[in-house]
Amino acid sequence: MPEVKVCAENELADGAVRIVRIKELEIAVIRHDGRYFAYHNHCPHQGGPACEGVRMPQVIDRFDAQGQFIGQTFDESDMHIVCPWHGYEFHLSDGTHVGDRRLRLRKFKVVEREGGVYVAI
């Protein structure tokens, strides 16, 4: 599998995304909590730039003992990529859609070595 250098090891700030074009593919490399994730920047819904939207944690509805809604909170351990066109959300960890696991972003392997960050295509 050929690898393409994306950036130097600490060049991409935590929470940042870098879009790189490799042949006909536009790939987004996202750094979150010191880890790198890479996905095809193409939403399976209608082809939008899936990785160029916001990233936000899973929203959790909270209910009391009687089942009454009492508010919302966030699950910081489950970060989502939100497509800017229509709001489709994908788990950052594996690229699957939060509501329909059959929908997913194409994931690429990220390799860190010798002070660089590479995407295997």
Put the structure in a nutshell.
Helices cover 0% and strands 53% of the residues. By secondary structure, the protein is mostly beta strands. The mean pLDDT is 95.
Annotation keywords:
single chain, 121 residues, mainly beta, Rieske Iron-sulfur Protein, six-stranded antiparallel beta sheet, three-stranded antiparallel beta sheet
Structural notes for this entry:
The chain is mainly beta and 121 residues long. It has one domain (3-120): Rieske [2Fe-2S] iron-sulphur domain (Rieske Iron-sulfur Protein). The chain contains no helices and nine strands. The chain has a six-stranded antiparallel sheet with strand order 1-9-8-4-3-2, with no helix packed on it. A hairpin with a 6-residue loop joins strand 6 and strand 7 (89-91). The chain is globular, with a radius of gyration of 16 Å. It starts with a strand and ends with a strand. The relative contact order is 0.26.
Average pLDDT metric: 95
The CATH topology? Rieske Iron-sulfur Protein
Low-confidence stretches: none
Question: How many E-type strands?
Answer: 9
Shape-level CATH architecture:
3-layer Sandwich
Describe the secondary-structure layout.
Layout: E1 3-8, E2 17-22, E3 25-32, E4 35-40, E5 55-63, E6 69-82, E7 89-91, E8 107-113, E9 116-120
Antiparallel strand pairs: 1-9, 2-3, 3-4, 4-8, 5-6, 6-7, 8-9
